[in-house]
C-alpha cells in the first residue's frame, strides 16, 4: 500500500510573549525592567544599532562603563520585556536628554539586539508587540513579504520614489520604528539627485533627534512611494538639510518610519531576511 502524504499549510505560530505598547504619536513605547529594577519606558527602535540606556539610569543602577567604537557601553545588563528576558547584554550608554526636554519619561531604547534575537511583530492597530522564537515561527498565510538586507546592524528595504514630473528614484532605506515620519532621505542622496533645490519652495519642518535637540528637514511632496507590492500616493518626503550626524551617513539613503509602517501589522524576521506586512484599516489614509 502506498501512503499518500498531503501538504498541510503551516499555521501561524503562537508568540512566546505579547506586550502592550503605548503609542506616543509616531513612536512605540514599551515597559522594560533593567537588572530587576522597576519597569520603565523604552522606545522600540529598529533603526538603533544598539540598545541604549540613559546616563542617569546607568548611574542610578551603579553600572560600570567601558569605551568601544568611540562610544560608551555597559556589560552584563539584563533587559526584561513581558515574559522574555535578554541576559548578559551589552548596551550603549547615551544621554536621552531629548526626551527629558519633551517631558517624556523615556530611559532607554530597544534596538538591533531585540530584533536580531526574536521575530518581532508590531500590531499597530491593536497596540501590541509579539515576540516569537525564529526557529518555530511561521508567518500568517495572508501576509505579503518584502526582502530585507543589512548595512552593518541597520535593516534596510528598497523603495521607489516617483517625483512630481514622473521621474523615478530608487533608494535603499532603513526600517526605522523610532522615526515618526514616512520617509526621510539623507543629505548626500538628496543633494546628488537635486531634491534640495526642488524642496526650496516649501516650508521646512523641525523634529527632535537623539543626536541633537532638533533637526531641520526640507519638505518635498512627491507623486508616489512604493515599497514592495504597496504604493502610497502623494507622500511628503523629508530631506536632511545638513550633512552632520545621521544626515550625512552614506551607508544607506534614508529611513522609512512609522507614518508608513503604522498602516500594517509588520513582522521583522531577521532570521529569514523578510519583512511581513498585513494591511490594517489605516492603509488608505493619506500620508502626512
Question: What would you say this structure looks like, in words?
Answer:
The protein has 288 residues and is mostly beta strands. The chain has two domains: 17-136, Acid Proteases (Cathepsin D, subunit A, domain 1), CATH 2.40.70; 144-279, Cathepsin D, subunit A, domain 1 (Beta Barrel), CATH 2.40.70. Helices cover 11% and strands 45% of the residues. It is built from six helices and 24 strands. It has helices at residues 55-61, 97-101, 112-117, 187-192, 195-199, 258-261, and strands spanning 17-20, 22-24, 27-34, 40-44, 52-54, 65-68, 71-81, 84-94, 106-110, 119-123, 128-132, 144-147, 149-151, 154-162, 168-175, 183-185, 205-208, 214-221, 224-227, 230-233, 236-240, 254-256, 264-269, 274-279. The strands form three sheets. Strands 13, 14, 15, 16, 17, 18, 19, 20, 21 and 22 form a ten-stranded mixed β-sheet that branches. It is globular, with a radius of gyration of 20 Å. It starts with 16 loop residues before the first strand and ends in a 9-residue tail after the last strand.
- Helical content band: 10-25%
* Outline type: globular
How far is the N terminus from the C terminus? Answer: 63 Å
CATH architecture identity of the largest domain:
Beta Barrel
CATH 4th-level superfamily of the largest domain? Acid Proteases
Radius of gyration: 20 Å
- What is the ordering of alpha helices and beta strands? EEEEEHEEEHEHEEEEEEEHHEEEEEEHEE
Specify the oligomeric state: single chain
Query: What is the domain tally?
Result: 2
Number of helices: 6
Proportion of residues in extended strands:
over 45%
Strand runs, count: 24
- Would you give the CATH topology of the largest domain? Cathepsin D, subunit A, domain 1
Mean pLDDT: 93
Largest sheet: 10 strands, mixed
Low-confidence stretches: 1-8
State the CATH class of the largest domain.
Answer: Mainly Beta
SSE-based structural type: mainly beta
Amino acid at each position: 500500500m502506498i501512503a499518500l502524504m498531503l501538504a498541510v499549510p503551516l499555521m501561524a505560530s503562537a508568540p512566546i510573549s505579547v506586550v502592550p505598547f503605548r503609542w506616543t504619536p509616531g513612536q512605540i513605547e514599551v515597559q522594560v525592567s533593567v537588572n530587576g529594577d522597576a519597569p520603565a519606558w523604552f522606545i522600540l527602535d529598529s533603526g538603533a544599532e544598539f540598545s541604549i540606556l540613559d546616563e542617569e539610569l546607568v548611574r542610578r543602577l551603579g553600572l560600570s562603563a567601558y569605551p568601544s567604537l568611540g562610544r560608551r557601553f555597559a556589560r552584563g545588563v539584563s533587559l526584561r520585556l513581558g515574559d522574555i528576558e535578554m541576559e548578559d547584554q551589552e548596551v550603549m550608554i547615551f544621554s536621552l536628554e531629548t526626551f527629558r526636554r519633551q517631558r517624556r519619561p523615556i530611559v532607554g531604547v530597544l534596538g538591533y539586539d531585540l530584533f536580531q534575537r526574536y521575530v518581532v511583530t508590531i500590531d499597530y492597530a491593536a497596540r501590541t508587540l509579539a515576540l516569537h522564537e525564529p526557529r518555530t515561527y511561521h508567518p500568517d498565510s495572508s501576509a505579503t513579504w518584502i526582502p530585507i538586507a543589512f548595512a552593518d546592524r541597520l535593516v534596510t528595504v528598497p523603495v521607489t520614489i516617483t517625483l512630481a514630473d514622473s521621474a523615478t528614484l530608487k533608494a535603499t532605506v532603513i526600517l526605522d520604528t523610532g522615526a515618526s515620519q514616512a520617509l526621510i532621505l539623507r543629505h548626500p542622496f538628496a543633494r546628488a539627485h537635486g531634491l534640495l533645490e526642488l524642496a526650496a519652495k516649501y516650508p521646512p519642518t523641525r523634529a527632535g533627534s537623539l543626536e541633537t535637540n532638533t533637526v531641520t528637514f526640507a519638505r518635498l511632496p512627491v507623486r508616489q512611494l512604493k515599497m514592495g507590492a504597496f504604493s502610497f500616493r502623494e507622500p511628503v518626503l523629508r530631506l536632511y538639510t545638513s550633512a552632520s550626524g545621521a544626515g550625512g551617513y552614506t551607508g544607506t539613503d534614508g529611513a522609512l518610519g512609522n507614518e508608513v509602517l503604522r498602516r500594517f501589522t509588520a513582522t521583522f524576521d531577521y532570521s529569514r531576511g523578510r519583512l511581513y506586512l498585513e494591511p490594517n484599516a489605516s492603509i488608505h489614509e493619506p500620508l502626512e
